[in-house]
Amino acid sequence: MTSRITIRPARPNDAPLAAAVFRLSMDHLTEHLFGRNGRKTEIALMRLFSKNAGRFGYGAAYVAEWNHQPLGLMVSFPGAQAKRLSLAVAKHLPRALGWRVFGFALRGLALAGIQEAEADEYLISNLGVLPAAQGHGLGKHLLLHAEEQARASGLAKCALLVSTENATALHLYKRNGYQVVFTKNDKNPLASYHRMVKEIGNL
Fold first, then answer.
1. Residues of the chain with pLDDT > 70: what percent?
2. SS3 label, residue 200
3. DSSP bridge pairs for 184
4. Which CATH architecture fits 2-199?
5. Domain boundaries, the chain
6. What is the pLDDT of residues 101-146, one digit of tens each?
7. What does 35-104 look like in DSSP terms, one character per residue?
């Protein structure tokens, strides 16, 4: 199966896949930020993605296809761009969320101050593969693509955050060479995470 996997830049019409991947990769954090109405959350995420809303937009995303079927997606970018891409989301939130934007902002305060990556690292912000396609190497191919993008950006390290409760993702990243460099244990489990880094060798 792996020989048929291709990675391409995301497009606005990948919004349904992106919404599914955001919900998978963010897990309970999605509900915490966007609310418990799953359909409204899905619509909001699709709007943000198709409007290229910073770190929720298609401009920073890559799609994994098998036999031309989009089955996985990764949002990644140089760590030095993280703040700018996070701020770029703000102007799109009122249209995507309506009045729920105030709840989003309030709940998001619990995550303020988290440093996802250093300026000399390439950040993998979100990565996910649709459940029916998991276990066939798409996640690994996306991670390898991140390494290629890191080198193209002049960076020798890739970084990511993973929930301390997400054992499946933690196993995937460890298997692909990522090491835990910092662990934050918080009374709020949504704010508990491992920061993981992989040295990708000489540029």
1. 94
2. coil
3. 193
4. 3-Layer(aba) Sandwich (3.40)
5. 2-199
6. 877 776 666 666 678 899 999 999 999 999 999 999 999 999 999 9
7. -S-HHHHHHHHHHHHHTT-GGGSGGGEEEEEETTEEEEEEEEEEGGGHHHHHHHHHTTHHHHHGGGHHHH
